[in-house]
Amino acid sequence: MKKIITLLLALLMVVSLTACSSNEKTMASLKKKGSITIATSPNFPPFETLNGTNVIGIDIDIWNIISEKLGVELVIEQMSFDSILPGVQSGKIDVGVSGITASEERKKNVLFTTPYCMAAQAIVVKADSGITCKADLGDKAISVQTGTTSETFCLANGYNVGSYGSNTDAEMALTTGKTEAWVIDDLSAAEMVANWNAENPDAPLVILDEPMTSEPYAYAFAFGSEEIVNEVSKIIEEMITDGTIEGIFASYGVPYFAPEF
Ligand code: ARG
């Protein structure tokens, strides 16, 4: 009986060990696979948007260079923003690439590379709303994208939050009067508001001068990918130092705020 139990325990250990190691990704295993799969939610210009069926944007330009430097092919998967980090954690995808804020909360569940830029959360309102600063928001309804740091921040600070699956829907909630403000990262806000205002000059939106927060963006990997994360972080630091990332931002006509590292 004792023998059987020992045998069963040994078997269990082997099974759990293989289960653990299946999530471990090294530079060698990556090279052997020959490709790296990034997941993105392409409703976030200028970081990721759709051009026909192609995903384009700052994050994609950066990853074309990173994957080339890693010596592997780039595979892009599209999914809703709130599926990305769970997908990374489960090992289904290699990297979350989606203007993702490297928040302390998320660091408990995923490994982040060194940040590649700084961003802020902007507050968008209708131009004639009379809302001019954070303090004017009170308990007015605010739309945000589900699973974002805009949602986390607004909920944690007691705002009256309506969550939407995409930024396009969060914007529509504001323009159709379901909400009175929309909180979204600054560069996406600038582009989406400019597009809206060009098409709807009679019902313009404005971005308030006062932002909600300031936060760093980084790429997310699963625990167990330390070696690849170090390699990618080195590449990012080089791309910041030699001006490559700033050049990519400039090619989209947007300002670049480098993180400190
Ligand atoms: N920076 C915010 C966050 O990490 C929003 C990112 C939204 N990205 C996107 N591709 N929709 O929560």
Brief synopsis:
With about 260 residues, this protein is of the alpha/beta class. It has helices spanning about 1-20, 25-35, 60-70, 80-90, 105, 150-155, 165-175, 185-200, 225-240, 245-250; strands spanning about 35-40, 45, 50, 55, 75-80, 95, 110, 115-125, 140-145, 160-165, 180-185, 205, 215, 220.
The top level CATH class name of the largest domain: Alpha Beta
Q: What is the CA-based Rg, rounded?
A: 21 Å
CATH homologous superfamily placement of the largest domain: Periplasmic binding protein-like II
CATH architecture label of the largest domain: 3-Layer(aba) Sandwich
Helix percent reads: 40-55%
Q: Order of helices and strands, N to C?
A: HHEEEEHEHEHEEEHEHEHEEEHH
Q: Compounds present?
A: arginine
- What's the structural domain tally? 2
CATH topology of the largest domain: D-Maltodextrin-Binding Protein, domain 2
Poorly predicted sequence stretches spanning 5 or more consecutive residues: 14-21
How would you classify the helix and strand content by structural class? alpha/beta
The overall strand count is 14
The overall pLDDT, averaged over residues, is: 92
Q: How many helical elements? A: 10
What's the main sheet like?
Answer: 6 strands, mixed
From the spread of the alpha carbons, the general shape counts as globular
Q: β content, as a range?
A: 15-25%
Distance N terminus to C terminus? Answer: 58 Å
